[in-house]
C-alpha cells in the first residue's frame, strides 16, 4: 500500500506501508506530473518499468497499432504479450479472419469473438482457459482451432458446432473424454488430443473423416471398431496409453486404410501386435506407404 509520495525535480520516492522505499528516476518531460510519466523502478537491484496513471502507455500504443492494422489485414496477432483479457477495442474487428492469442494469461475468450463471423483461424494455446463461450458456436467459417496447453477439463460445447473445422488441437489439457458430438465435424482432417487424461472415446469416432488422430499419452484402454470405417484415416497415434491386445479391433488392422499405428509404451507388446489377425494386411499398407515416401 502506498502511503506517501515525495516529489523533486529529478526523482520520485514512494514509501509503502511496509516501510519500503522505491526510487523513481523520471524519463519523461519535466513538466509532466507523476501521474503522467514513465518511471524506472530500482528495487533490490532489479529494474522494471512502471506506468503511473498514464493515459496511453507503450503497451496501449502497441495494442492500438495492432488493432488498427488488423482492420486492414484481417489478422490480429497478440502473441506472448502477457494479456489477462482481450482488448475491448478488438470488438470492432467483425471482419477478422485470423485471431492469434497464444502465450498470454487469458482465463476466457470474450463473447464478442462470436461476432467475428469471417474468422477462419483461432489460436488460443498457452493460456489459462477452462472453456469457450457458447456464443462462439456461430463461427461457421472457422477452419483451425488451437487450444493446446490450457486448463480444459472437457471439450467446449461450441466446438462441435464449427461445421467448417479442419484442424483441432487440444493437447496438454485435462480432458478425460471426447464427446460424441465431436464426431459431427464432417470436414475435420486432423485431431490432436495428445497429453490429456482421456480414457473414453466415442463409439462412432470413425464417423470423423480425419486423416490423422493423435491420442498419445492418455489413458485409452480400447479403440472403437468404427475407426475402420473411416477410409481417410491413415495415421493413428496411441503411444503411452493403456492398450492391451484386447483393445485393438481386428477390423482396424484387416479392413481399414490405416497405414501407421504408433503404440509404443502400452501394455501391448510388439510380438502380440504382430500376431493379431489382420496384421499382414496392415503391414502391407505400412510398407506401401513407406515406399511411396522413400
Task: Describe, in plain words, how this protein is organized in 3D.
With 294 residues, the chain is α/β, with parallel strands linked by helices. The chain has helices spanning 58-73, 250-254, 270-274, 279-292; strands spanning 2-7, 11-16, 21-26, 38-43, 46-51, 75-77, 98-100, 121-123, 144-146, 167-169, 190-192, 212-214, 235-237, 260-262. The protein is built from four helices and 14 strands. A hairpin with a 4-residue loop joins strand 2 and strand 3 (21-26). The chain is elongated, with a radius of gyration of 26 Å. The termini are far apart.
Distance between the termini: 67 Å
Order of helices and strands: EEEEEHEEEEEEEEHEHH
Assign a percent range to the helix content.
10-25%
Low-confidence stretches: 1-56
Task: Give the overall silhouette.
Answer: elongated
Mean of pLDDT: 85
Number of helices: 4
Helix/strand-derived class? alpha/beta
Name some characteristics of this structure.
disordered N terminus, 14 strands, 19% strand, elongated, 294 residues, 5-stranded antiparallel beta sheet
Amino acid at each position: 500500500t502506498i502511503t506517501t509520495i515525495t516529489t523533486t525535480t529529478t526523482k520520485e520516492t514512494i514509501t509503502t506501508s511496509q516501510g519500503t522505499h522505491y526510487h523513481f528516476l523520471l524519463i519523461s518531460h519535466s513538466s509532466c506530473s507523476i501521474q503522467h510519466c514513465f518511471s524506472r523502478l530500482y528495487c533490490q537491484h532489479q529494474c522494471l518499468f512502471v506506468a503511473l496513471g498514464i493515459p496511453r502507455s507503450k503497451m496501449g500504443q502497441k495494442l492500438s497499432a495492432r488493432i488498427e492494422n488488423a482492420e486492414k489485414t484481417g489478422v490480429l496477432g497478440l502473441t506472448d504479450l502477457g494479456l489477462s483479457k482481450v482488448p475491448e477495442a478488438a470488438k470492432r474487428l467483425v471482419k477478422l479472419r485470423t485471431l492469434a492469442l497464444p502465450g498470454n494469461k487469458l482465463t476466457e475468450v470474450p463473447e464478442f469473438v462470436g461476432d467475428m463471423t469471417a474468422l477462419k483461424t483461432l489460436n488460443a494455446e498457452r493460456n489459462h482457459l477452462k472453456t469457450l463461450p457458447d456464443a462462439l458456436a456461430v463461427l461457421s467459417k472457422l477452419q483451425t482451432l488451437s487450444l493446446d496447453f490450457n486448463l480444459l477439463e472437457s471439450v467446449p460445447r461450441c466446438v462441435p458446432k464449427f461445421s467448417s473445422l479442419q484442424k483441432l488441437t487440444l493437447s496438454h489439457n485435462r480432458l478425460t473424454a471426447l464427446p460424441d458430438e465431436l464426431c459431427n465435424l464432417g470436414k475435420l482432417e486432423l485431431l490432436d488430443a495428445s497429453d490429456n487424461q482421456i480414457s473414453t472415446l466415442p463409439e462412432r469416432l470413425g464417423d470423423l473423416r480425419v486423416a490423422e488422430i493423435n491420442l498419445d499419452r492418455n489413458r485409452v484402454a480400447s479403440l472403437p471398431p468404427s475407426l475402420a470405417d473411416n477410409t481417410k484415416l491413415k495415421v493413428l497415434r496411441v503411444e503411452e496409453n493403456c492398450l492391451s491386445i484386447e483393445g485393438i479391433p481386428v477390423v482396424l488392422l484387416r479392413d481399414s486404410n490405416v497405414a501407421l499405428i504408433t503404440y509404443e509404451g502400452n501394455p501391448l507388446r510388439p510380438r502380440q501386435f504382430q500376431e493379431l489377425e489382420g496384421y499382414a494386411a496392415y503391414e502391407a499398407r505400412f510398407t506401401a506407404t513407406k515406399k511411396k515416401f522413400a
